[in-house]
Design brief:
The protein starts with a helix and ends with a helix. It has 6 helices and no strands. With 102 residues, it is mainly alpha-helical.
Length: 102
């Protein structure tokens, strides 16, 4: 998320970009990438310097289509429906009905 904030300084990442959608994209893409990408190409994340890794992350974050990861803000809640279905009709338990018959 820090790389996304640095690559897109004009966007309020905390309020507009969903952590959930970013994590979902990474988890769904990682499986295929682990098969296709050679082991040597992953070495930058293990043996690379901080500047090399941060440069790569900034490059990747700069190429993101942020519209794909926008938060879906919830609209206002609807007020509950009035509870008038049984108004004026008192509740009678099944036990009382059975006791009256017997």
């Amino acid at each position: 998320m820090a790389a996304i904030r640095a690559a897109h300084p004009d966007i309020n990442v905390k309020d507009e970009i969903s952590d959930y959608y970013i994590a979902e994209e990474i988890s769904t893409t990682y499986g295929g990438m682990s098969i296709i990408v050679e082991k040597e190409d992953w070495e930058i994340f293990v043996n690379g310097s901080i500047s090399e890794v941060s440069t790569l992350l900034l490059l990747l974050a700069g190429n993101l289509n942020l519209r794909k990861f926008k938060k879906n803000k919830r609209g206002p809640k609807k007020s509950p429906a009035p509870k008038d279905k049984f108004k004026g009709k008192p509740h009678v338990s099944t036990a009382k009905l059975l006791a009256a018959d017997g």
